[in-house]
Amino acid sequence: MQRTVPDNVIDAFTALLAEKPYETIELGEIADRAGLTLGALREAADGKFAILAAFLRRIDRAVLDEIDSGSEDSRRDRLFDILMRRFDKLAPHKRAVAHLVASARRDPALALGLNGLALPSARYMLAAAGIGTDGLRGCARVQGLVTMLARLTPVWIDDTDPDQSRTMAALDKALSRAEGWDHRAGKIEKAFCRIGRRFDRRSRTRSDAPASPESEAAA
C-alpha cells in the first residue's frame, strides 16, 4: 500500500532542494526542517526518493483537479493546456527542479529513477487530455511524453518571460512533432495487426485441413 507522505515533509524536502543539489540533502536535514525526529521521518517516508515521488504526485493532483472534463477542445489543445498548467504548478519550485535536473545529469541512476516516476504522471496527463495509453502505441505515447517533458524542462527553467512564451513555443513545436510520430506509429500498429490476423487465419486453415493418407497410414 502506498504511504501518504505528510505535506510538512514534502515542503521541507523541496525547500532544501531549492537550496542545494539532490545528492547533498541528508535525511537528518529533512527531519530537522520538518520539525521531526529521524524516527518520525522514517515512519513518514522510506527516503528522499519516496518524498520526491510524493511531491510529484501532489503536483499531478493539483493539475488534474483543475481539468475541465467537459471541454470540447481538441486533444492536442487539451494536452497543451494541461502541460502548461503543470509548469505553472511547478513554478514556485523552479529552483528545486533546476537542482534536480542538474543532479540527474550527473547521476544516471537518478535519471533512470526519475523516468520511472514520470511514467505514471505522463499516463494521467494523457488520460486527462482524452488520449489513450493502452497497448504498444499507448506505451509509446507515455514514454514519448516523458521524453518530451525532459527536453522541455530546461527550456522552462531558463524561461524568464512572465507569459512563458519560450516554453509555450517549444511545447507547441514538440506537440506537432509528436503528432507526426503518433500518426506513423498508428500505421505501423495497424500493419502489424493485419499481419497477425493473416498468420492466425493460416494457422487455423492448417489445423482444420484433413490429414494426408501418408499421415493416416503412419498413425
Write the topology of this structure.
Layout lengths: L6 H13 L7 H8 L3 H7 L3 H17 L10 H16 L3 H13 L1 H21 L6 H24 L6 H44 L4 H6 L1
Structural account:
It comes from Kaistia soli DSM 19436. The protein is 77% helix and 0% strand. With 219 residues, it is mainly α. It has 2 domains: 1-65, Orthogonal Bundle (Arc Repressor Mutant, subunit A); 72-199, no CATH class. α1 (7-19) crosses α4 (48-64) and α7 crosses α8 (135-158). The N and C termini lie far apart (57 Å). 19% of the residues are buried.
Average pLDDT number: 87
Computed over alpha carbons, the radius of gyration is: 24 Å
Domains, number: 2
C-alpha geometry: globular
Number of helices: 10
* Helix/strand structural class: mainly alpha
Number of strands: 0
Q: Assess the beta-strand content as a share of residues.
A: under 5%
Order of helices and strands: HHHHHHHHHH
Helix content: over 70%
| Biggest sheet descriptor | none
Spans of 5+ residues with little confidence (pLDDT < 50)? none
User: Terminal Cα separation, in Å?
Assistant: 57 Å
Organism: Kaistia soli DSM 19436
Protein name: Transcriptional regulator, TetR family
InterPro entries: Homeodomain-like_sf
What's this entry about, in short?
InterPro entries: Homeodomain-like_sf (IPR009057). This protein starts with 6 loop residues before the first helix and ends with a helix.
